Structure formats: C-alpha cells, structure tokens
Sequence to fold (1525 residues):
Amino acid sequence: MVKTTQVDLKDQDLLGALRGFFKAVLEREEISAILVPWRLPMKNTVMPTLITDPQQLDRADPLSPGFAINTARVVSRLTRRASAGKVVAVMRPCEIRAFVELVKLRQGRTEELVIIGLDCLGAFGNRDYFRWVGDDAEASTQKFYRAVLTGSGAAMDGVDLSRACKACELPTADGADIAVGLYGVDTAQHLLVQARTPEGENLLGKLGLVETQEPPGRMKALEKLVAERIAFRDEMFNQTRAATDNMEKLGTYLANCVNCYNCRVACPVCYCRECVFVTDVFDHEPAQYLRWAERKGAVKLPTDTLFYHLTRLAHMSTACVGCGQCSNACPNDLSLMELFRSVAHRTQAGFGYAAGRSLDEKPPLSEFRENEFPEVVGI
Amino acid sequence: MNRKIGKALVVGAGIGGIRAALDLAETGYGVTLIDRAGHIGGILSQLDFQFPTNGCGMCKMLPLVERDASSQFCLRKGLFHDNIDIRLATQVASIKGQPGHFTVTLRQTPSGVDPQRCVGCGMCQAVCPVEAPEDFNAGLSVRKAIYLPVPHSLPNTYVIDGSACNGCGECKKVCPTEAIDLAVGRWGRFRILVVDDEMIVRESLRDTLIEEGFTVETAESGASAMEMLAAESFDLMLTDIKMPGMDGVELITAAKAAHPDLCVLMMTAYATVETAVEAMKIGALDYLVKPFDPDVLIPMVVKIYDAFQAAADYKLEVGAIVLCGGTGFFDPAQGKNTYGYGINPHVLTSLEFERLLSGTGPTGGRLIRPHDGRPVAKIGWLQCVGSRDLQVEADYCSSACCMFALKEAMLAKERAGGDLDAAVFYMDMRTFNKPFERYRLKAETQHGIRFEKGRVHSVTTDAATGSPVIRYVALNGDEHVETFDLLVLAVGQRPPAGTQQLAEMAGLAVNSWGFIDTLAFHPACTAARGIAVGGSFSGLKDISEAVIQASAAALESSRVIHASGGSLALEPSSTPTFRDVSRQPPTVLIGVCTCQNRLDAAMAPRALKALLGADPAGDEILLVDGLCTAAGWDKLEAHLAGGQTNRLLIGVCHPYLFGRKFRELGRRCELDPALMDAVQIWNVEPASVPAQSRSPFRADLSPLRMGLARVKKSEPKPVADVSVVRSALVVGGGIAGMTAALSIADHGFPVVLVEKEGVLGGNLRWIQRTAGGADPQGLLAETVQQVEKHPHIRVRCGNRVTASWGEVGRFTTAVENAEAAVETIEHGVTVLATGGREAPTRSYGYGASVRIVTHKELETKLASGELNPGALNCVVMIQCVDSREEPRNYCSRICCTASMKHALHLKEKNPQVSIYVFYRDIMTYGFNERYFTEARRAGVIFIPYEPAGKPVVADGPGGDGGGLLRVTAMDPILGRPIEVEADLVVLATGVVPELPFDLSNAFGAETDTDGFFAEAEFKWRPVDGLKEGVFACGLALSPRSIPESIATACAAAQRCLRILSHEKLPAAKVVATVRQSLCSLCERCIETCPYHARSLGPDRDKVLVNVAMCQGCGDCATVCPNSASVLLSFSDSQMLDVIDAALDRV
Fold:
C-alpha cells in the first residue's frame, strides 16, 4: 500500500523543500489548515501553529530541535468533535503515537485529519534549546539537521539530544498518513514522501510528485540508528531500575518533587479533564494530617507525592509513548522520563501492547481476556 | 420493597431449589425454602468444579433485581434474602388443600446443637471420641459424631449425628456457649418415664428404649413417679397397673390432673385388660399386655412420638409448591456387577473421586490413592454404571455422567501435571448440550484424555499391587486387559430417598423407575396443579438444564398463585421514608456487642476511645450485651431512635446476619440502611490453634476503626430507580415464543408477539408425533387458540422487527408489517424466541435423488402419504450430517431420538423393512434411552462410523437418481466394508439457529460462534442475555425438543416477571454514578461495563448509568483514572480512609 514519491530540493534547501511541500498541501481545496511547528514572530521559539495562509509557511520549522510541547494534545483539541474542514498536522513520531492513544481514549478523531509525519531528528530539552537557538533560527536549524543527517551527531555547542530522544527506538512516522523520510536518503538532493494510508495516498496522488523507490541504504541507516538507541535505552532501564527497585529508593528518586503536577500537564496522554489529585478526593480532613503526623512523629507536606507518581504510572504507563515531556516540564529535574519509560516498557510488554502502535489495538484496561496472567490471577 | 401476598414452598435447597426460590423471591413472592440436610447447596456443596467451565460461578445466580434484598456473597456458603425463609433439617410431613391454597406441614429434625448459640468453635469435636464416615467427603474420610456438615457454610454450626453419638456428654462439658442438648437426640426432646414396681421389668424396658435412642427415667412406685413428674418434664409415661400403694389407675388420674399433656401407655397382665380399657377412658392412650415383645412396644412408642411431634410441626399456607428434591445415585455394591466397588478399595464412585480432587477433600486435593496414599499414574473411568443397563432395571441414561467424567479426567490431568494416563471407557459419549462437543474435543486434543469405546466386562484385582484390573472387548472384538491405579465408576442416577413418600403426599405419579412423572410437553408440571418440579428431581440434568427447569417450575408456581388471586398485586405501599441527613455532619452510633460480658464493660470504653481516636464522628459508643438477642437489639434501636446520631456501626460476631435487621431498623427509625454497617469483632480462632488453648471468643476491636471510616462517608443520598414499562415483546411465534407470551400474559401483563411468518406455530407445524407418542398437533392447536384468544396478547404475524433502542424497563422497538408500515412498541423486557430450522445440507448426494431426504422431509412425506412405509424394503439413516465437526461442532440433540421415532414408526407400519442407522454416538439421553432399546429390539441395525470414514451414498441399481441407492461404509465390528441397497436414505442434518445478527444486535444480545443466543452464563443464567431485560428461549438458544423448548420459554418468562412485577426497579445502594464535571468522556467505562449498564447520552455529552442494570461491580470506577466514575458506598476518599484505618497502629 505504500506509495513512495520524492520531493526534489532546490539548492540543497531541505527546509525550503518541506515548506514548498506543505504549501502545495495547504493549497489543495479540501485542506482548510495545516498545523506545523512554526517560529513565533516575536521570538525564535518553535510552537505548533495552525496556518491557513500559505505565505505563513515560510516560518515553518519542522526540523528544529525545539520540542516545547507535545502536539498530540493540540491535535486532540482540533479534532475532538466534528469540525468545519480538514486539517493537516505535521507531527513527530512520538506525537503521532500519543495522538493514537488519545484517539483510542476518545479525545481526538482521525476523520478530518491528515497526519504528515517526519523522520524525527530528535530534540533538545527545552532549556537547552532556548539557550542554544540564538538569533538566527534558520541557521541553527540548518546546522542541526545537517549535523544529524551527515552522521556527525546532534551534540553541539555543549548541548545534546534529550535523553528521551537518545533512548527513542521509533524515529520513523509509521502512524502517519504521509511519512517524510530523511534517514538514509540523499537529503542533499531530495526527500522521500510516502503515503501510508488510503487517506495519505489520496492526498499525495493529487500533488503530482515523482514516484520513486525507497533508497537501498535507508533500511540499513535506520537499523543502525535504532540499534544505538536501544543500547542507550537498555542501559537507561538498568540504571533506572537499580535506582528505584524498592519503595525507599523510589522515595529518594522522587524526593525533590514539589507536587506541582507539571509533568501531568505536559504529558500528552494524561487526558483527564481534571486530575484526581487536584479533586476533592485528596481534600483530607485537617484532623487526618494530625493523625498521620501523630502516627509517625513527622509527616511531609504536601502528602501523596509518591502516591501521585505511582498513580500516574498505574494510569498512564500503558499509554506512555516516551516523548519525555514530563522530564522537560519538571522544574526540579526529576528523571521522570526514565522512570516512566522503564515501567511502561514492562507494563506494555506484559499486555503485549505498544502505545501508539495501532488504532486497532484496544488499551489493555479496556479489554477483557478470560485467560490472561494465570500467574497473577491464579486460575 | 414490594411484598406480594403470594407465598410458595420450595422443597430442596440444592441449586434447583435455590434458583426457584430466588426467582419467586425476586418476583416478590414470599418463599419458604426447606432442605432435609443441615445446609443448602445440595450436591453442589460437594462439587468445587463444574463442566463445561471447570469452575464454579454459582454466585452468578444472585439476584439482579432488588439486589439489596439479598446478601451478596458466595452462594455455596449461604443465602440470605428478605423474601426467603430457609428451614434446614426440615422435611414435608403432609400436604393438604388445593392449588393456590395448600396447607403444608413441615417437620424439623433436631440436631442436638442450638444454632442460635453455636459459634462453630469446634471444641466439641476435638473432645468427641466417636468417629464416623464423613458424608461430605463421600465417606472417604472420617469425622466425629458432632461435626460440621459442610466446611464452608455460613453460619456454620455443628450438628450431632444421633446414630453415631454414644451420649458420653464430653461435648456438652466443653461447649462454651451451652449450645449442646444431648437430650435432643434422634427423638428430639421426647422424654419417657417408666413406672413399674418390678426392677427387672423397669430396667429391661429402660434399656430397650435407650437402645432406640430415647431419653428414659424410671420410678418404682406411683408416689415416686408423681415426684419425678413434678420435678422434671416428661412426654410419655409407661406405667404398670398393679403396683403396691398407688396403683396405675390412681397414678394416671393424679398425673393427668397435674399434667394434662402427658401421654400415658399402660402395661398390664392379661387378667387386668378390662382395667386397662377402663384406664383408657381416663386418659391412657393405649395398653400393652405383658409379656410383650419390643417389636410391639417400639412402634407404639414411635406412634405416640409422631403424634407428639406433630404438635410441634410447623404449618404453612402456600399457594404453590416446587419440588426440587435433587437426585440420588446408584450404589454399585448393590449391582449384579459391582465392578469391584466395595471389594477393591481403589475403585471409587465419581462423587468419591470428585472429593479426592477437592481442596477440602480427604487428601487436601492431592491426587493420591486414598486407601494407601500411593501415587496415581493411571486412572480409568467406567461409564454407565447403573445406567443404560437392563440388568439393574435402568433403561435410561443419566445424562450428566459423560461430561462429569470428562471434567474429572481433565482436572485429574491438570492436578497430575500431565503425566497421567486418563482413559474413559464408554458406550456413547453423550455430549448433547450446546458447548459439550467442543468440551470433549478439548479433553481429547488439549488434555490427551484417552477414549475407549466399549463396555468393561469385569474388574478384578492385581494380586501384587492390589490395583484394579479391567477386562474389556474393543469394537473390533479384541479382548484387552488393563491395570489401573484407580477406577472411577460413573454411577447413574436413582430417585432420591423419600421420593415415593413425597409423591404420595403430593398425590403425584412416578414413572417406572421411580422418578416423578411430569406432563408430556411441560416438564416442570405434574398432574397435580400447583405442584411443580424443578432441578433434577424428575431426572438427572446438568446445571444449565436443572436451572432452566427450576425457573420453569417457579413460573408454573407463580401462575397458579396468580390464578388463585394471590399474587402480583402489590400490598399497600409502604415505601420507607428516611430522614434527610445529607446536610448534617456525620455522627455515628457505635454499638459494640460485649457478648455475655466477655468484653470488660469497665475497660471497653477507654479501649475504644484509644482505638477510635479523636474522630468527632465516632463519639457515641453503646455497649450492648448480646446484639444477637432481641433485648440487645431493642436497646440499640431505642438508643438510635432517641439519639441524634445519623449513622450506625455495630461490632458483632456474624456481620452478614444483619442485612435484613438493618433494613427493618431503617424503616422504623427512618434512617437509610445504607448508613448502617456491621463489622466482625468477635472471632473464632482458626483451627491451627491447638484445641485446648483455643478460645472461641477472641475480640478484635480494630475492624471498628475501618467500619467507622467507611460508614462515616457513606452516601446519604436516596438511591435512584428505573421505571418499568410493564409489558413484554416476544419475537418469534413458535411454541417457545407462544409459551413465553402466554406465561407472561397469564400474569396480567400485555405482550406483543411478533412472528415473521403469516401464521403462528413455527417448527411445530410440521412435527406430527413425538417418540413418546404425544400429540404435537394437539399442542399446537391448543396453544395457538390460547394465544389468539388471550386478552393480553397482541399477535402480529407477517411482521418483523427493524430496529430497537433502550434498556431494561424501557425498550422502543420498531416493527414493520408486510406493507412496510412501521409501528413503534414500548416494552420493558424482550424475549427472543426466533427459533431455528433443520440445517440445509449438500452432503451424501442430497438433492441428487428423491430418495435422499432429511428428517423433516421424511416426517412430512409420511404425514401426507407421499411415502408409504409398506413399500419400503430398506432404509438407511445417517446421523450427525455436517454436525459435531467444524464449522458446526455441536450436537443437535434431537436427531438421535427423532431417528428412533421414525425407525420405530416404520417398523410398526412395515415389520419387514430393514433399517440401518449409521451413527457416531447415540444421544438418547435421559429417558429417551428406552426408544433406543426399543429400536434395537425391533431389529434396527446400528453401525458406528468415524468422521474420517463416513458412509458413502451412491446411485445403486436403477441409476439416474430415481432408482435404489447404494450405501457403503466400513463396519468396525465386522472389520470390513459393507454395502446396503436402500430405497430411502434419511439424513439427520441437525438444527441451525435463526437469530439474524441485525435482530440480536438491535437488542444488544450477543451470539455464539454457531449463531445461537449467547447466554450471560451457560450454567447459571441459561436464558438471560448479558444485557438485563433481554432473554431467549427455544431453538434460538440451543437445539431442543418440544418440552425442553417449553421449559426454556417458561424460564425466560419467569425471568421477565421478576422485572415486570415492579413498577420501578430500585437500584442497590452500591451502584455506579458519574461526576459529570470531571468526566473526560473517554468512554472506557462504557466499554468495560460487563452488564451494558452504561451508555453515552443522546447528545453524546455525558455518560449515563442505568441503575437497574448496574450490578455494582466497580469495573467502571477502576478504569476511570480521575474517579469521575464512582461506585457509591465505595468512594475514593472513603476507601482511602478505610485503608488508612486498617494501617493505623493503636
């Protein structure tokens, strides 16, 4: 089903080619708007932006290492109910995976949406990026993608990819309607554009692009990249598990948490309208605090810190896509991504589930199988 | 709650009795449920695993309507329902009256232990010196003379086995609650005084009577007799006439004056008979002429005892009676061929083996030989022991044993870890219920059970190992000898003890094997109106069938009670009003039972204060000595009524006993029982504590802390309800649909009956006769007439259902007629009786020759005269056409009996005709077996075939499809191919359902892999859909005979009546709700709800809960991440507080 085409570059301008491609898409009559990472006019910050005027696409920056927020939540808002027109969203693979989870949780719909996904070159942590980007964002982005695509690595100027990106073994946009391939492609000359769904094929067919074959080196390049990522990931799992394998260690691991709940605000799949931890469920009676203090002689306030993280793990680890926005959002630099990915890896494997892999797989807790986990349920 | 005037008696508290009682209770009738055993559950209390799920799940029978009227826990342990009065160790003594107005006398057998006092501590059995075989473990283990009848009952009180007890009194000495009364022996509290001046007479009489189990005292003179009568109470006096001093007549005069109720029996020498006759005028009941034989004395005393006992009998007025007496089993030791049972200890019955597999069994569930503890590597199951055996006068199949054996073999395999050789020796593997063929396949392919077709000839013993050795002849004639570690005999059914007496009392007939006779087409009805039969009482059934039969029996009872004017009319409404406490801060009255001052009343308040801390909600503590007593409860009630508290928490020994008491208390004190709770603070120490240091009264007050945390935050909101459109829609106008419609309409509820054909009747229209000779056309005509004339039934023939929305209480269904005009019908319940049809086939050359016909065609052609039996020379019948193999891997259950019916009919009309039946397993289950026997007697030849070697039908002489047919097959007995020239080949193609997806889907009903209606649960809810309010019956449910279809229709109707009898279905206090402001509309709760109780609102902006369908399981609350979905009475903050209280150290 994969229809493979290519977009040729002018003057080796990858960004320009992508912008041209996006313009061609937006100019289609059936497309109402396109959501892309876009440089804000007032600052060199890249944010998801909904664009209807093709001219505005000159500020689109889909290859920037800036990844301020996970777009999945924005796309969820755009698609939750039937809208007036079809929207194209340009997303990173982890954003697509998060969106897939949100669709399964009825927080978004795919009916009037076309997803364009790019091979992800990775991103810096927010603080790193804002420090690094400087005044010439165009040049910064070019420097970044050239370094990554020529194989010299993303580490530059004292910053490097976030740990979440370094541990990401899913850098391609498998869940997109249209996937843009960069790894293993001669990006000095052209980029690869593949339709992965009938919806994508329908749109791509109207753009009149040249059909081509996937270059033979692409698979190999990806395999190499993924192998490195997995090695990093597994080492990260080992370290994290060693640091959290009992309640005491876990308490130490999370000791700097101030219950600001930024991590769950930043988390793309934490979809509750209001988190249970800010509802009246945790409005303990004043006498209760005294009883707790009395029982142990000392009680840390606010309480429920460990409980909060464990609850979030219980609720969301099967939906965790590893985007790392929790760590990004933490004011106190807790290694939350590491913890979530380590746990999620096991919980998802336990249910034979991979978050964001397919819209057809039901979330584990929404599905009842009679013969499951006999070692746990004992029958 | 809606109490109805009608009342029913259910005899037998096995699953059949429980199902019938619950059905009637849920419908609103009062039910008295009795069992002669000291526990409920019948045989299932001994069976931990049941086919075809190999698990239990009895709790699925718990009420779904008005859940709070019943306790919600394991039904094997106990049943507590507001409308059900359970009387154990009780039997029927007499039945009088007529349908709708029976007077029943019930007699309780005293157990010697007062169940009100016994706390189940077990100190008595620790000291009891007498051992007896343990019935619960089928005699494989021993227990004491004072014992627990089952280990898991609630409440679990000890009983004394009067026949084993030696009366030593050790138990009475140690009993801490003085619960034991040894005088209450076999003859209850019946005390005899023997008065005679001759010591030898006195003492020999005393000994004789004591030997019989009576309690006897003696006196040597009239004067001392009068003294004893004054000091103690006696029920019978045996007195001599000629005594020095005060003589017998004087004694009687004086004794009767002082004790008018005393019975007197005279003993007299021949010479004074006239005096004795005189004495009878002044009050003696009878006389004995000396010297007399004990054989004369004892019956006379027993007669007096019976008359005495009758005064203590309990009289009950009921409208109808359901007999669920269960089943008895064949004792192989009594058979002509014992199969080594009773001789070789390694030969067990199936029930004994079942206990061997049980965790509460003699070996704790370890699979070893019970007799010598040796490991088990090889087990053989011998089927049909005492069934299908003319030698033991059992010309019937016991229906359940094949599946029972498969289950045991599979469980044994699992238990043994796979290294077990498990072989089943059978004649026909009878897997005739819907899921059973696949169950057999699983046994064979997944578990490696070995199937050996053939009847075992004899069992001997291996001299070296003592192991049983069997000798059998395989199909091909080879003789085999095989040694097993254990043999399990599939013992057949027998009528349970007492069936004959009960039948006589109730005026019922029994069939030639002693089972209760039922009406030809109505298996739950007897010839005596108002007396129905449920469960296995009219013949052994698997659980699913027994439950269907029980519900059908409940329906018949309900119908009789209703017809006699008793029922379903509400008593004047007494909906309780509760005061509104929602705006008050919670204040809890904590009632603590001090259990006969075992809790130090002086210290307790301080201890409780320390325990409960400074919680302002738990300030009011009331110590009560004996909350289980009426006085104690009154004290609590007075305090609650007079005080300011708005919650109640009690600490007791048996919290589950207080559900009903809370509801009554709530009514009187106008306090919602949802705001009351009981916790267990008095414990019986576990058996692991040595008996001598064990105390039955260990108080642990800490549960009060958790109870306080919970009750404090209980929801004071009134529970919602769902209003009911009190009418039914029945889809399908065959016999099942018509029966269901009539059954509902007879209770006064309107029914719309939709039939897609132009006429009513369905398959019944072409069935001319049954194997038993009953008249289906008569049934059809009668039923159609009843339906058409019924004032409450609206028949819509030639119509079909196009769409339906809604849930229990209110469905809206669109029905379209032939002219495409649509009518919208509102109804509260739905019965799918869409039927089935004979399966079409292309096998065996069907269609190529007019001589190849199906059963239906044969029946039709015989009826029309198109086929003349006299013109036939040879008929071949082929069974299991396209059946019992994928994709239709189920037995259609009716075809074998149908073949017998046709074969016998053809033989009757033309004795010269040769009939050959090619079969795989003959499925003439139950009493149908006799037709198989008759067919063989009539000369019908039965030839088995394997699916891999099916018979081949080809054109024979004459050719071209019009001439004879040649059937060739391999005869496994002859071991060579055979060839039959037939002028008729009859194919048994089986039954396929007619339940289109669109239709089932419209009502939210699910279908199984074969397209039949998927029951909520095969065993326990066999006619319910998982979605409440949708039921199925007849062939849409599974292949069935006419009476079996009628039974399902009655059962489905009964399930409907539970709902229709309510104007509003009240929710239980534990139901789910949605906090809309928190809800993210992810719909996970809707997906996860197993009862389809949740839906998205019409504007898709909120999640709704149908509180009548919600069963309070809490799945929705579990999947909801931010507790927008809440289970009332189990809110997060409540549970967090409870956990906190549990973890709190004192």
Observations:
- The first strand of chain B starts at residue 7 and ends at 11.
- Residues 862 and 868 of chain B are 7 Å apart (CA to CA).
- Chain B touches chain A through 30 residues (CB under 8 Å).
